[in-house]
Amino acid sequence: MKKSLTKICIGVLLHICFCIYGTGTYAQDTRSVVSGTVVDANNEAIIGASVKENGTASGTMTDINGRFSLKVSSMNATLTISYIGYKAKSVPIAGKQTLKIVLQESRVDLDEIVVVGYGTQKKVNLTGAVSSVNMKNLENKPVVNVVEALQGTTPGLTIQQSNSMPGSRPAINIRGVNTLNNNDPLVIIDGMQGDIQNVNITDIENISVLKDASSTAIYGSRASNGVILITTKKGIKGKPRIAYDYSYALQTPTFMPDIVDSWVYAELRNEALVNSGRPVQFGADQIRDFRQNGPNSNWMEEIYRSSAPQQSHNLSIAGGNDKTTYLVSAAYLDQASLFQGPDYGLKRGNFRVNLETNVSDRLKFNVLAAYTRNGIKDHAYWTEWLIEQATRMPPIYPIKDENGDYTFPGGSNSNALARLEQGGLRESQNDDLSGILNGEFKIIDGLKLRGMIGAKLYNNRLKENRKAIEGSGDKENRMTNSSQRIQEITSNLILSYDKKFGNHNLSALGGLSYEGNTDNRFSTFRVTDRSPYDIMGGEQTSNTGNQEWQTEWSIYSAFFRLNYNFKEKYLFEFNLRDDASSKFKKGNRSAWFPSASLAWRVSEEDFYPESLKGIMPGAKIRSSIGLVGNNRIGDYQYQANVNVGQGYNFGSNVASVATFDPYNADIKWETTRMFNVGADLDFFSNALSFSADYFINDTYDILVGLPLPGLYGSAAPIQNAGEVRTQGWELSARYNLKTGGVRHTLSATLSDSKNKVSDLKGSYFINGTDVTTIIKEGYPINSYYAYRSDGYFQNADEVAKGPHLAGITPKPGDIRYLDKNGDGIIKDDDDRFVLGNREPRLLYGINYRAEWKNLDFSMFWQGVGQRNVWLRGESVEAFHNNNEGPVFNFHIDRWTPSHPDASYPRLTVGAESANNAAKSNFWIENAAYLRLKNVQLGYTMPAKWTNKLPNSRLRIYATVQNALTFSDMKGGWDPETTDGGGRIYPVNRTYSFGLNLNF
Predict the structure, then answer these.
(1) What are 256-302's pLDDT values in tens digits?
(2) Shortest CA distance to 592 belongs to which of 617, 627, 625, 620?
(3) Cα separations (Å) of 106 from 62, 88, 99, 684, 687?
(4) What are the record keywords, sorted (predicted)?
(5) Would you identify the CATH topology of the domain 246-253+304-783+839-871+928-998?
(6) Best CATH choice for the domain 113-233 from the list 2.170.130.10, 3.40.50.2000, 1.10.10.10, 3.30.930.10
(7) CB-side exposure of 155: number of CA atoms within 13 Å?
(8) Residues 932-941 as b or e (16 or more Cβ within 10 Å = b)
């Protein structure tokens, strides 16, 4: 990616900053000065409190002693003083030059506003399951995207980061798995569907997670997996405020495979060969030489750097007057890859503008524009393949010889470092441009008309130049070019009414919306057999290919919401949405998605005891039920599609072939019925808040292609044929405490969900190669499906009497399997069991923050209480697939006649490994873990150190991401790794320091 765009943006912003601050510098200042202190009820200074003159842009912050000094327009003006965790206070100056202001704690803000679909609500009046993310907990984390920062912060929000490769996308879902199709939540950014990966975290004002039918049904389509609402920051009235954040970090792997030393490897290799009926490979002298002189290589460590830098810059300017406010921001991120090679990594630039203007008392407009460019430079191969090759290489071979040339002990393509350093490049450039225009007209008091139109353009270009490497035996070169262009249009028109009639509060809104998407893609490739230094040449071309296609979809919608409450005590909400999707034929396109919810604030009742109010001043119970939809399938599944391609060669002639995709004209919306019941409680003068929810989601008419006999000769057409039930619970708590001069904040979340396939018309799916999963009635989606191990065969008598895998004769030290049907033969479905599941359960997070004077400290623990992961191949098996490696240190604890209770079976190679390599729960590991996700220490400089900048604040900090991990995983693999051979880029531990400057 070119750096010029970001540099220009930042340069322009800096120029604007200094120009703005430069204007008016020489004007005569005739204002008066008022000073004072801000303290709490215990007469302790409050540091960093905001002090502003009402109706002007004049403001400052208190210093380490709670003192402030402010120039005001008049000694009869009024000041507003505010600080997080305290009630804001307005104080008339009344001619006094010195003031002492006492703020009272307000541990829970009853007027807190939460963003919901197409609007906002007071938190106390919510009837649905909505979690608002505390943005303070996300500040200054050395993450590449906001998804990583959200992990563990919100109950019911599941995020799995299996690797930290630049450009990777963590998996995300809300309240578990609800369907056999896409389980990603709907992400709405400033009213328009967007990519959460492309939002700069410092631009975000608010994140709301909508989890039940009451909160999501207003979005109808695609809301069955929950909704994440992101609102970006807006301008502020007053003199321009500038914020600059910088961080520099070093990334290191959290875990690396625990490879044995070369001399230990040689001894274990000899043992495996003898166990397999073969002669030893290494003599005693060779083994002794390995110990004394090496080599003792770790190929996995050789392909990675010991550390890789990461840095980010974030700059924003916000200001305005009574008519117009603005915010302009720019950001730049540079994340280097841990892989060896030429400048691999991610470079991202963000630019955002938010402008709001009041044309009159009735009419206002808001314009938002955002642009993101992601540039990723990577090696030209598959990461899984590179790691596989590096893992297989034993430590007895150097990765380069004494002349500095690459070695290829495993044959062609076996040196992953060569591939990284000389095997070519894959470069991608993603541009994401969006613009939104909002308008609002106040018709009469309480009645408003709002309109929005948004457009989005996404361009993705990829160039791959894969080169053959001299000396490797590989002569194939490949060049690939591909591009993607997505255009989206979103618009809506909403009429809303909000009025209070005595003790009755009524609000309603109705609207129409449209969303359209066009996706164009093109790809071409060429394979040649020339030398590594000349990859394109017509006469040497051995294979070429071109593809081009375009898809379109659209949704027309109408929606309505009604909110009513009596004395803010009895609360009711009703939502209704009608969606018409182009993905279904006429007659099936439209579906209605209603929801209703009730809440009762018991603590507001007259009968609520006064004695109980002192202990539990707030108590609310709530419940909701409703329907939401899912249409995430291909765009033309309801009609016949013709594919034309070069399918067959007849001599030197290539014949074009047309094939028809199977289709089903009768498919309709997949639907999820959601039920939720919950309670919100506040204790001890609102110092402790607690929420609990229980939910059941029933998804029916699931869009799925049921298995067909192989004679059918094609994929099965989609039909509405499945049902899944997902149920679970969520707990969250927050506690605020002040001891002496230290403010403590402790918050915790705990949640669990599980799913079960209720109906699949008697069919089932068996999927996977390395790892086998099954989708079957009565079991969770994608449960592991394999043999069940039953210890080891300890002697020849047990071998003779025990069940055997079909066609294999085991030996003592081999894994024994349970004979499910009792026929003495272990084979396929007859003896396979449904075992474990990869989905995490019992997710928890604990966040602690303390502030004392100018110091602040925070730490965040996150973990999973129950999860299985099935590791296969190179990640766990010694001498996998008849290769010379790998051998890990845990393999030392292997079965021998003198060590029958080992954790690993006898060592073998080749065909002798077939029994132990069979797919069984022996290789399924407990992937539960506890991780110190983030620890941070910050210091805010005294105001006198930065008084040359008006109203300035400078904070420096140091932080570590993924600092500690506690897990029982074998082999040095991270517990968030995915199923299979462990052939993935590691999760990073990141050490970072940075600064926040505001003025």
Answers:
(1) 888 999 999 999 999 999 999 999 999 999 999 999 999 999 999 99
(2) 627
(3) 19, 9, 22, 12, 9
(4) Cell outer membrane, Membrane, Receptor, Signal, TonB box, Transmembrane, Transmembrane beta strand, Transport
(5) Maltoporin; Chain A (2.40.170)
(6) 2.170.130.10
(7) 26
(8) bbbbbebebb
